[in-house]
Amino acid sequence: MLAHFPPGSDRWLFGLCLSRVGAFMVYISYAAALPVLQLEWQMSGTAAGSIASAFQIAYAVSLLVTSALADRVGARRVFLASSGTSAVGAMLFAAFARDYWSGLLWYTLLALALGGTYTTGILLVAENIPVTRRGRAMGLLLGGHSLGLALALAITGIAIPRGGYRLAFFLTCLGPVLGGTLVWAVTRDTPNRVAQRTAAERLTGAVLRNRPAMLVITGYTCHSWELLGMWAWTPAFLAACFVAAGSGATHAAGLGSYVSSLFHITGTLASLIAGVVADRFGRTPVIFAMASLSAMCSIGFGWLIGGPVWVVVAVGLVYGFAALGDSPIYSTAITEVVAPAYRGAALALRSLAGFGAGAAAPLVFGWVLDLYGSGRGAEGGWGWAFGTLAIAGAMAAVSAVVLHRLPEARSLHLPARRRTIANLSKPGG
Questions:
Q1: How many angstroms separate the CA atoms of 99 and 119, rounded?
Q2: I need a labelling partner for 118 at 20 to 30 A (CA). Which of 62, 108, 176, 315 fits?
Q3: Domain total of the chain
Q4: Residue 169: how many other CB atoms lie within 10 Å
Q5: C-beta separation of 200 from 333 below 8 A
Q6: For residue 196, is it within any domain?
Q7: Interhelix angle 211-244/249-281, nearest 10 degrees
Q8: What is the distance between the alpha carbons of residues 412 and 192, in angstroms, rounded to a whole number?
Q9: At residue 425, does pLDDT exceed 70?
Q10: Which string of DSSP letters, residue by residue, matches 154-169?
């Protein structure tokens, strides 16, 4: 007999989060193996960044389409269909990505499928979890994503020395297959809700003229530039640090993946902690704290190459914590300042902007590396490349300050327990 998962229960939430661990392993398959792929596929920094950017562009397009579609046909229906398609796309990527052009093609197609599982999962949480527990729930959901990334990096670190990137791709791409199976079991009793739109509501007023919503989207866009650029290039940077410390290239690539997985584990903890803290103390103060700390890490991280490896790792653990800590809060906030019938549309716009920025970030990062070189110290480009991420992090912190001072967004800096049902029912409340 199949287990029962009552919608909104702790068991339901845990099962949903566990499915996300498997599904999101493929998100970082390419970045985890990048040091080896650059050598075997003979790619420059710009070419390597272009595959990561193409993935993010396709992911953003998928998020845009599927989020808007969820408003029309229901989040559960889109979530299930996208989970199944992601499982197929992941195995095709593992089987056929063997050079720059095939990697570009299959990783882009995989992104088109995977994108449909992200915002629809957020919508399912918003539909089934009350606001007093929603920050915690979003933290758990996105913590599942981070745990999947950490697991993929650890598996890649083990697989590359033994079977190269082919084995690494195969193992990490099993994640969406297992995750998709769990999705079906967890959500089979979850209602497929479609909120009715009233004649007075329009997308322009509900989202585009909604100042709190647009500020949340602006902050998320800057946050995504920093986070996704950092995710795409940190394994390669760590590999370069280990090479600078005397390791061989293949061994350094494995170590880079291992250590990057630790950064994602701290990101998982950040999602859990930040979600709970935001429920207790408000959304905007936590966003500001995380964005400020992350920007400071971006400023200094790249300049550490050539220094003691333990210092690089220590700063990286803080960096991984701060860079992801505000992600669940942005997801929670957008569901609280937009009317339910337009949540999917708001998430679509947020995702297009955020992952569009995330698509540009790895490309700009790689271009700066090509411009300055990937050596160490002042002559290397790593410090300057991470500096492009710091600018975005600083802008995210500024947007949090503006949002905090906005009268219409007062609910976002109040503890969740002090929110009233009347405020929650308003598009900007």
A1: 31
A2: 315
A3: 1
A4: 29
A5: no
A6: no
A7: 150
A8: 28
A9: no
A10: HHHHHHHHHHHHHHHH
